[in-house]
Specification:
Helix content: 40-55%
Number of helices: 2
Number of strands: 0
Order of helices and strands: HH
Structural class: mainly alpha
């Protein structure tokens, strides 16, 4: 790993999650959604994250 500066590596970074993993996380959050406080938060987070994902390909 090449470090031109002490705080910023120059190597390309891998994504935190793959698209497949992100979609699975949204599905899990929707599964956990219910009328409890935590369930409503799960539903809200699923909606926010889901809007940031690219649309599924139909081709």
């Amino acid at each position: 790993m090449d470090f031109p500066t002490a705080s910023h590596p120059s190597d390309p970074r891998l994504p935190l999650l793959t698209l497949e993993e992100a979609r699975a996380a949204v599905r899990l959050l929707m599964h956990l959604a219910d009328d409890s406080v935590e369930g409503r938060e799960a539903a809200e987070l699923a909606g926010v994250l889901g809007m940031r994902l690219p649309a599924a390909s139909t081709a």
